Amino acid sequence: MEKIILTDTSMKTKKIVIFLNGFMLLISAMCMNAQDNAAISPNDYESASIVKTGDVAPDFTVKMLDGSSFRLSDKKGKVVLLNFWATWCGPCMQEFNEIPEKIIKRFEEKVDFVFLPVSREETLETVQKKMTQLRRVGIDFPVALDPDRKVYDSYAKSYIPRNYLIDREGKVVHTTIGFVMEDFEELINMITELLK
């Protein structure tokens, strides 16, 4: 009997969190500036990108949510998926819903793979609150902070989510912008190839 009550409570909590996420997506879509809310054309993407496929990924150090530090150059020899996101970004949350199953679980045994989601221009408190909320529905992984947007600005001018797939030599081999399932699946395939 207790197990049924816990399951019902968990389902209710999950439904509430999903509803709140949907509501936040709607609000964020209305609040985003026009540039980040616009349809992306290839020309827009090109002009808004500083780092492109084939470039060496600029080095940086970020503070993780748990207080530790992450330096990209320390991960040379590993495949790194660098993801820029924000708590208010609807497409970022769509992508986050896919990441636990399709990235974290799929590559958790690969010690030479690193997933680094970096929150763009948000406070520690805002990111902590969002990650606590997401943890309740099974979205749980370490995240980094870029509160002054320094790291993001060395990679791009606008648009999130953005993914940069970085090979073992520190070169960007693939980039994505926004969230489209076909692009996300292609990204997973490229990670798989790099880890062979």
Topology:
Layout: H1 2-31, H2 34-37, H3 42-48, E1 61-64, E2 69-71, E3 79-85, H4 90-107, E4 113-120, H5 124-135, E5 144-146, H6 150-155, E6 162-166, E7 172-177, H7 181-194
Parallel strand pairs: 3-4, 4-5
Antiparallel strand pairs: 1-2, 1-5, 3-6, 6-7
Helix pairs in contact: 4-7
Structure overview:
The chain is α/β, with parallel strands linked by helices and 196 residues long. The protein is built from 7 helices and 7 strands; from the N terminus they run αααβββαβαβαββα. The protein has a 7-stranded mixed beta sheet with strand order 2-1-5-4-3-6-7.
Major β-sheet profile: 7 strands, mixed
**DSSP strand tally:** 7
Supply Rg. 17 Å
**Lateral arrangement of strands in the main beta sheet:** 2-1-5-4-3-6-7
Shape: globular
Mean pLDDT: 86
Low-confidence runs of at least 5 consecutive residues: 1-7, 23-38
Instruction: Report the portion of residues in β strands.
Output: 15-25%
Work out the helix count: 7
Put the structure in a nutshell.
The chain has 196 residues and is an alpha/beta fold.
